[in-house]
Each structure stands twice: as structure tokens, then as C-alpha cells.
Amino acid sequence: MDPTAINPRMALAILSEQNHRFAEARAAIESCLAIDPRDDQARYFAALLDRRENRIEEAELQLRDLIASKPRHQYVQYASRYELAEVLNRTGRFDEAMQLLLEAKTLQRRLGTIDAMLQEYDQGAGQYRRSTLELPKNILRTWAREFPERDREAMPRLAFLGGHPRSGTTLLEQILGAHPEVAALDEHPAFTIVACQLFNAAPQITASRLNLIRRRYLEAIQREWGGSLEGKLLLDKNPSPTARLRIWLRVFPELRIVVALRDPRDVVISCYFQNIYLNVINVNFLSLERTARHYANLMDVWLAVRQWEGLAWTETRYEDIVADMEKEGRRVTEFLGLNWDPAQGRFHEKSSQKQMYSPTYHDASQPVYKRSVTRWPAYEKHLAPILPILEPYCRALGYA
């Protein structure tokens, strides 16, 4: 309708890239640049496509030219620095990458109510952490007596895949989700905005209330999935709700839990590199110190919950998946009560044909690669002030 409109063309480029249709994304960007060769958004996205297609030198030249031109678009101002930092990381210029990230995060802080979001996070995270650590190790037995199996409304087989962001949850979800008997959901909000809200709003947690929550949760999942869930194992992958495991297990006593682990130092540096929309969780990633504190809050919950008697759980390490994807994938698949399927070894073929909502969708649509293992030593001097925060978790989780 408007032959000179750039914004709808940019939206088309973004959607095409998220669905791995790079030729269509490139064509949309070229149409934007034909309208205005100096458009900030189009120039940034052209460089992003170059990096996605491993044209690293071209991406760096475009990004440096873009930053030097002092773009007026606020998102492009900081996003171009994040993107250039990733290029520099790929090419071994680690100190310069950290300087670009510092500039990007300084620009981001000017755009939102950062202090208010951090305060909201601290309040919520503190409550979930305290309320979990206060529970006895035999709490699952108490809950089972209050909500026995005979009183529960039927549900599909259900598993939760959690852990800290950037611990390999998306990669594992894609491997498990390639199984024909698994309905895998990528960061669907049903648990947070349906189950948790109904749970927290209840004046009393009765069997009827728990069944209502189960029913509403399943209805929300069914709307997202679209097809039949009969005979499927429902895998809900979402890192942040790991902090709310006490609610998961109160509502779904039959839940099986898979927690993805990765060296805490690699997790923190990887989170710090992420350019993602700020909310009360991600706002922590504006500093290394807050990222480490966020890691500690979430993992304190998990380290407490995994000691609960009668819990059906397993941990899986990102490093083990990268070293031998089929061996570790098979182990976790069997924990879920399924046999390994050959399609799981070709998970990236399915991933490249669907839209994912995780910020790391572009990584999970590729075959397994090893460049993110033991990444942190290159940034050791920058991590030095927060290593004491992470040291207890390195020991508890078996990372030297």
C-alpha cells in the first residue's frame, strides 16, 4: 500500500530471519536499502544477516560504519554494539568485545525504569527462594497426602525442562522435541500467567483448586499446540520458572524434572552477551554482578529442591551434550520413559523449519557445535570480581 514504507519491510525481514528464510530476509532488507540506503534499522539488520551467514568480515565492516555514523534509532544504537561484540568474540578480541558490551548496556540503561524492574525482581526472587528453602525435605509426601492420585484430574505425561538461561535448555528441548511422542513447548507463558496466578490468588489450596489450575494450564497448552496431545509426553521448557518449582510440584505431583547445567562461569558470560528485551528477569543481565546474583538465586532453589524425598529428577550437562549428543540425549530421553528415536539425531532439520521463541533460536537450529564450551577463561579478568559468588555453585555442581 505504501511503496516507500520501511517498517513493514523490516518486520517481514525479521520474521523471515526468525523462520530461517535468509534469502527472503535479505530481499526485504535490500528493498529497505533501495528506499533509503542510510536507514539505521536496515543497515543493522543487513550486518546481522551477514553474521548469521558467517560473513564475519563483512558484518564487522558494516557494524563499525554504522556505529561511527551515530545512528539516531535507539535500538540500533545499542544493538549494533551487541552484534559487533559477538563478532569480536568470534575473532578472539575479547577485551574490545567487553568494552562494546559496556557501551551497549550503558545506552540500554537510559531507556527504561531499570531500578524499578530490579526492585520488583529482588522482591519476587527473594520470596520464591525463601519459601522454597523453608520447606522440609519430605514436603512431597505431605503434598501427596493432601492431593492423592485418586483426586487428580487426568493429564498427559508431563515434564519440566528448566535450569538457568544459557545452560543449554533450548538445545536439549530441540533434541527431545524431535521425538515423535514428545510435544515440546518453547518458553510458553502458560505456567507463569495461568498456573502461578491462579495458585497465588487462591485463599486456600484445595484439591478442587489444584484441579482447576491443572485444567486451565492444559487448556492454554492445548491452544498453543493445536494438534492432539493424546499419547504425547508434554515437555514444558522454560528456564525462569525453575525458581517456582514448589508451585510446579504442588500442582503437578507426577511431574518429571530435567535441569540443564553448564559451567556457571560460562553461563554468566553468555547471559551478559545477550541482547534481549528487558524485563524483570533479563534486566539482571545489564551487569556481571547482577547476572551472578540471579544465577545464585535460581540455583539455590534447585539445589534445595533436588534434595526433596521422592522427587523424579535428572540433571544434564551442556558439556556432555556437546561431547556426545546421542549418548546424553538418549539418557535423558530414557529418563522420560521413552526410547531414543533416530529423528532426534537430526533435530536441527526440524528446528530450522519452525519458529522458536527463545532468544537463542538461531543457535538451536544448527547442528551441535563446541565453541561455547569453556568460554569463560578468555574473560577471566573481567569475571574476577564475581568469581567468589559463583565458586560455591561450581563446587556443588562439580565444575572445577
CATH structural class of the largest domain: Alpha Beta
Strand content: 5-15%
State the CATH superfamily name of the largest domain. Answer: P-loop containing nucleotide triphosphate hydrolases
CATH-derived topology of the largest domain = Rossmann fold
Would you list the SSEs in sequence order as H and E? Answer: HHHHHHHHEHEHHEHEHHEHHHHHH
Query: How many DSSP H or I helices?
Result: 20
The secondary structure category is: alpha/beta
Span from first to last CA?
Answer: 60 Å
From the 3D coordinates, which CATH architecture of the largest domain would you assign?
3-Layer(aba) Sandwich
Outline: globular
What does this structure look like?
The model has no long low-confidence stretch (mean pLDDT 93). The chain has 2 domains: 7-109, Serine Threonine Protein Phosphatase 5, Tetratricopeptide repeat; 114-397, 3-Layer(aba) Sandwich (Rossmann fold), CATH 3.40.50.300. By secondary structure, the protein is an alpha/beta fold. Strands 2-3-1-4-5 form a 5-stranded parallel sheet, with helices on both faces. Helix 7 (114-133) packs parallel to helix 14 (288-305) and helix 14 packs parallel to helix 20. It is built from 20 helices and 5 strands. The chain has helices at residues 7-18, 22-35, 40-52, 56-68, 74-90, 94-109, 114-133, 139-146, 169-177, 190-200, 207-225, 245-251, 264-272, 288-305, 318-323, 325-335, 347-351, 361-364, 380-383, 387-397, and strands at 157-163, 182-186, 233-237, 256-261, 313-317. 57% of the residues lie in helices and 7% in strands.
